[in-house]
Design brief:
The complex is a heterodimer of chains A (268) and B (287). Chain A is built from 13 helices and no strands. With 268 residues, chain A is an all-alpha fold. Chain A has one domain (59-266): MetI-like fold. The relative contact order of chain A is 0.14. With 287 residues, chain B is an all-alpha fold. Chain B has one domain (65-265): MetI-like fold, CATH 1.10.3720. The longest helix of chain B is centred in the first third of the chain and has 32 residues, at 2-33. The chains are: A mainly alpha (268), B mainly alpha (287). The interface between A and B is large, with 86 and 89 residues.
């Protein structure tokens, strides 16, 4: 009895959590603009014409490609740089190491809103405003990623590296040929986390670009509203475009996502 | 050793450059800007001392945005934290289908905020699902939908925020629950403790560090609420928040100095809040 009640509660909460996304897909499949009600949630007809529309006209496909390009570049950058820096923090001794490591914690404590205005001005001065560069360069390495890699490398034995060093391997060779393959699990967690964050991000892509040709999908969606009376099927089809890759990644890499979240949290 | 010292510095270089160029410089730059009257179309700017800060403290739009930010933070965090803990306890033990529930609850957390805001804009609008639900329950929702009304707009955004973030904090609570040694519960059972007693004297105290972590990061995040407001109401209907104000004055009216000063005031508020939270928890003032 208690057990049945518990399942009922679980299912009810699940429905509340999942319904808005189902609703999004449902509206994106509606034949014409208009609002649904309870009664015709199922029966209002289905069409993929809106998706066809999105792919063949308008800028939605452009936004999607921009998001993918920026996401891939930022993810690649983070894998390379977070790995290098994390390795250095774990294995080397060098001047100012503690200071630089402290700077990581420092950044985590500083709310990002404070750099909106100066970053906007800086990107202008550097001539990066409204380019891919503005969306990629400031985000190529992130403190949480460095932390994650450092923690992981700390757990690896140094014996393999020492052996390679004895054999006369250079530092770069050790870094990329010996250590990097061992770090694959940590780097997978890092890559997924970085890609998802970047794919979903709105604030910085929004303030650092202005033209439609470099706009990412979330920015394009947020500014789509303004054009005319809200065209919900198109807007929800575009939203689905933003959600589907995330769902696919979630389906395949759920374990990585969860461990990425809890790894950062439990250390504190 | 000398060579490795050099290599270490070299490998850290990307981080050093990125930190100096994209963090430390902007941070100091905006502090400096806060004391000037710099704005667009004005090639030279003047040092104005604390003028911006004084002006802000009597700027009605800024004060309203602060008020809304406080309502948002104080309203959502307790609800989010308690709900997340409740969900974590609900699915802590293994049972058939547990993964499905966990994934489902967590899914909103990895969906783009813009998308969620758009979907809820639809659900909250007149004739939308939540609107109809409220009507069915006899709640008399506002005529133009929840987001186009001064009384309901902010609280609707807050409700959405709770819905969206509970899954994420649930996962962190779950990890915290997992780290509690089983033996403690076994010992308590031997001593004849009931479920509530075990919860009060084992689970809650041992979850304190995790709860502190959750509350602190959620506070820092919530004080910066912006995207939802931008997408759903554009700061109208009494929903403007501090970061929305900073965005409007800095990047719409291009009053860079004024906006930077506002950003630093918000920074100060967040810093004070975080410190107070640390102290409260240290002293065991809460549970």
């Amino acid at each position: 009895m208690v057990r049945a009640g518990r399942y009922l509660l679980l299912v009810f909460i699940l429905a509340v959590m999942v319904f808005p996304l189902l609703w999004m897909f449902r509206v994106s499949l509606l034949p014409a603009a208009g609002t649904l009600s309870f009664t015709d949630f199922i029966s209002s007809g289905y069409t993929v014409a809106t998706y066809y529309d999105i792919f063949t006209s308008g800028n939605m496909l452009r936004y999607f490609i921009n998001s993918a390009v920026v996401g891939a570049a930022v993810t690649a950058g983070n894998i390379l740089f977070c790995f290098m820096v994390g390795y250095a923090f774990s294995r080397y001794r060098f001047i100012g190491k503690n200071f630089w490591f402290f700077s990581i914690i420092f950044v985590l404590m500083i709310p990002a809103h404070i750099i909106i205005i100066p970053l906007y001005l800086l990107v202008h001065h550097l001539g990066l405003y409204d380019t891919y560069g503005a969306l990629i360069l400031p985000f190529l390495v992130n403190p949480i990623g460095i932390f994650l890699v450092k923690q992981y490398i700390d757990t690896l034995p140094t014996a393999v590296e020492e052996a390679a060093r004895m054999d006369g391997a250079g530092e770069l060779r050790i870094l990329f040929r010996v250590v990097m393959p061992l770090c694959r699990p940590a780097l997978a967690v890092l890559a997924i986390q970085v890609f998802l964050t970047n794919w979903n991000s709105f604030l910085f892509p929004f303030i650092l670009t202005s033209s439609e040709s470099v706009r990412t999908l979330p920015v394009g969606l947020a500014l789509y509203q303004g054009h005319q009376a809200i065209d919900w099927p198109h807007l929800m089809a575009g939203s689905s475009l933003a959600v589907i890759p995330v769902l696919v990644i979630f389906l395949f890499f759920q374990r990585h996502i969860v461990s990425g979240i809890t790894a950062g949290a439990i250390k504190q | 050793m000398r060579a490795r010292n050099f290599t270490g510095c070299l490998f850290t270089l990307p981080r050093i450059i990125s930190f100096l160029l994209f963090w430390l410089f902007p941070l100091l730059y905006s502090l400096l800007l806060g004391f000037t009257d710099y704005r667009l179309m004005r090639p030279s700017f003047q040092w104005v001392g604390f003028d911006n800060f004084i002006a802000l403290l009597s700027d009605r739009a800024f004060l309203i945005s602060l008020k809304n930010t406080f309502i948002f933070v104080l309203g959502t965090i307790p609800v989010t934290t308690v709900t997340a803990l409740f969900l974590a306890l609900l699915i802590e033990k293994k049972f058939p289908g547990r993964t499905i529930f966990r994934s489902g609850y967590f899914m909103p957390s990895i969906t783009a905020m813009v998308v969620i805001a758009l979907v809820f804009a639809n659900l909250y609008s007149r004739g939308g699902y939540i609107y109809l639900l409220a009507e069915m329950l006899g709640l008399a929702p506002p005529e133009n939908g929840f987001l186009l009304d001064n009384r309901t707009a902010l609280i609707s955004i807050m409700a959405m925020d709770v819905w969206m973030s509970v899954g994420y904090y649930m996962l962190i609570f779950l990890a915290g629950l997992k780290s509690i040694p089983r033996e403690l519960y076994e010992a308590a059972e031997v001593a004849g403790a009931g479920a509530w007693c075990k919860f009060r004297s084992i689970t809650l105290p041992l979850l304190k560090p995790v709860a502190l972590f959750i509350i602190v990061i959620n506070t820092i995040k919530s004080f910066q609420v912006f995207v939802e407001v931008f997408v759903m109401t554009k700061g109208k209907y009494d929903t403007s928040t501090a970061v929305y104000f900073i965005y409007e004055s800095g990047l719409n009216r291009f009053e860079f100095g004024y906006a930077s000063a506002a950003a630093y005031i918000l920074f100060l508020i967040i810093a004070i809040f975080s410190l107070v939270q640390f102290r409260l928890f240290r002293r065991r003032a809460i549970w």
